[in-house]
Each structure stands twice: as C-alpha cells, then as structure tokens.
Design brief:
The protein has 52 residues and is mainly α. Helix content is 50%, strand content 0%. The chain is elongated.
Length: 52
C-alpha cells in the first residue's frame, strides 16, 4: 500500500461525489443511450470544479 504524508492518495476521481444530473448522464451512456460526448465532458469538468 502506498502512503503519503504530503498529499491525499486516491484510487480514482470516481470517489468524488457526483451531482444527480451527471449520474443520470453517465448511466444513460452505460445503458447505450446516445449522449453528447462534449456535453458530458463539460459537465464532468464543472462537477469536479464544484466539488473541489
């Protein structure tokens, strides 16, 4: 196991809380529903900025 006293170690950004609308977009994509990739990418960026 990696350890650090200088930074937070995480397995992936998926551990961040996700807004409901982003969760719906991600599930839709996984279910094969066509999702605007640019809109999804933009929403991911804004969701990360909102949380962080």
């Amino acid at each position: 196991m990696k350890r650090s006293t200088e930074r937070f170690l995480t397995t992936h950004t998926g551990s961040l809380p996700r807004p409901d609308d982003l969760v719906r977009m991600m599930f839709a994509k996984e279910d094969g529903v066509p999702v605007d990739r640019a809109a999804l990418d933009a929403r991911i960026r804004t969701a990360v900025a909102e949380i962080v």
